[in-house]
Design a protein that fits this description.
The protein is an alpha/beta fold and 156 residues long. The chain contains five helices and nine strands, in the order E-E-E-E-H-E-H-E-H-E-H-E-H-E. It is globular and about 45 Å long.
Amino acid sequence: MIRLAFFDMDGTLCAPRFYVNGKMVVGMSDEAWLAFCEKNGADTYKFCKPVPAVVEYAEELKKHGAVLYVLSSAQSEAEKAAKVKFTESNCRGMFREVITVAGDDEKLPVMQKIAAEAGILASDVELVEDTYRLVLQATVAGMNATHVSHLYCKRD
């Protein structure tokens, strides 16, 4: 049974859409992203949309008693504020907290620490993510891991 679930933000919980220079884009260079976040602050994710299949899966897990977190990397405080605002606006009351880390390699240790502090076994933890490398790392660590694409496949 899944007792803790961690959801990545960009490309997993939210479909990236950013209005830049008169057109919608799905991404930009790191330097441009930092400037975009500083300029737009908490409204950085204003045009992003929640991914319905991921939101439905999160709702299902929560209904069965799982505690949910957003776990995403952020390069600045402005980006973190935007991720919090997106989550509060689009997934009201669903997630206990939005946790940001400096890089993806910090995700697994954060999940392990929260699980250990709550006395939850790795086998009762899940990561929902779009980065296959992280899905594999979670699996090797004994956790459940779901690549976002699997949420569009028929569940067995």
